[in-house]
Design goal:
single chain; 321 residues; alpha/beta; D-Maltodextrin-Binding Protein, domain 2
Length: 321
């Protein structure tokens, strides 16, 4: 009996040592990071800025190759990530709510259950803006006018189903008002429209408008975050103005569901250390990236909650007719 116990203990120790060695060696080859959007865009630039610092904190001469896989508003890249081998050698730089809304809006080739979030990197809060010489200087003025004049306020966004469109729809629902939605192809065209007075209000991420706000051409009526971004402390939050709304563009790292727990933990730790790295933070500030690390457990919890909320909105009033 004693010999049997010793053999079992030895086997257990060897297994533990083997697991530790395998983890210490990870990564043994190049990791591919899928970016579901084209090269040179905001998501791609953020991913490529982050990668060297994740490599640094992974150790073991880690190498991460960014693979751009654009198309179908991100669905092609998200699908490739979801269907990849969950071995830690394929990860993705994901965007929310895009990753969440695609399977709600249409039959997609992936679901939220196919994705394992690792850590969030950026939270770029939605902001509502008007021209400095426009008729609205705060959210209360928008609501008062819109209640007296239904469907007389034009509101521009960067497209149907995006985070800024959903932010607008949520705000209108909570405030009990009707706004006229004017979708634009991209951020530059929407920015041109609001600066030119072609729409009365616009929904953009706070990092995209802060320069215009600082120079005085636009007024930010509010930002959808619990605490103001450190570079926009003068912009009031929606919560502070009585609207329980937090929404923005999250950019983080994820893997296919089923990734080994030890590899997940090592990647999560490396991302957290990368975000805290002073060199990365300096680079992010130059790019106006509002950083917000969210650990894996909290990240998936928030995504599931957002998925539930958006499905309820979709069932009540689909944002695509």
């Amino acid at each position: 009996m004693l010999g049997s116990l010793k053999a079992t203990a030895a086997a257990t120790l060897m297994l533990a040592l083997g697991t530790g060695a395998a983890l210490a060696e990870y990564p043994e080859r190049t990791i591919e990071m899928i970016v579901a959007y084209g090269a040179g865009g905001g998501t791609d630039i953020a991913a490529r800025t982050l990668v060297p610092f994740v490599e640094k904190h992974l150790g073991n001469d880690a190498s991460i190759a960014v693979i751009n896989t654009p198309g179908a508003a991100g669905e092609i890249g998200f699908t490739k990530l979801a269907q990849s081998e969950p071995d830690g050698y394929t990860i993705g730089f994901i965007n929310n709510p895009n990753l969440i809304t695609i399977p709600i809006q249409r039959k997609a080739r992936y679901s939220l259950d196919d994705i394992q979030p690792i850590g969030n990197v950026v939270y770029d809060a939605n902001a509502f803006v008007s021209r400095a010489d426009g008729e609205f200087s705060d959210l209360a003025a928008v609501v008062a006018f819109a209640k007296e004049n239904p469907r007389k306020v034009t509101f521009g966004t960067t497209g149907i189903g995006g985070d800024d469109h959903l932010a607008m729809a949520n705000f209108a629902r909570l405030a009990g008002i009707e706004l006229v939605h004017v979708p634009f192809q991209d951020t530059p065209s929407l920015r041109t429209a609001i600066l030119g007075g072609h729409v009365q209000l616009a929904g953009l991420n706070i990092s995209e408008v802060i320069d215009d706000v600082d120079e005085g051409s636009l007024i930010a009526l509010g930002q959808m975050t619990d605490q103001p971004w450190e570079l926009a402390t003068d912009v009031p939050t929606f919560v502070g103005q009585g609207y329980d709304l937090t929404m923005g563009s999250q950019r983080g790292v994820a893997a296919p569901a089923g990734i080994p727990a030890d590899v997940l933990a090592k990647l999560e730790e490396a991302i957290e250390k990368a975000i805290a790295d002073p060199e990365f933070r300096a680079a992010a500030e130059k790019q106006r990236l509002p950083l917000q690390f969210i650990d894996s457990a909290s990240f998936i919890e928030g995504m599931k909650r957002q998925d539930s909320d958006l499905r309820q909105i979709w069932n009540e009033e689909p944002w695509i007719k």
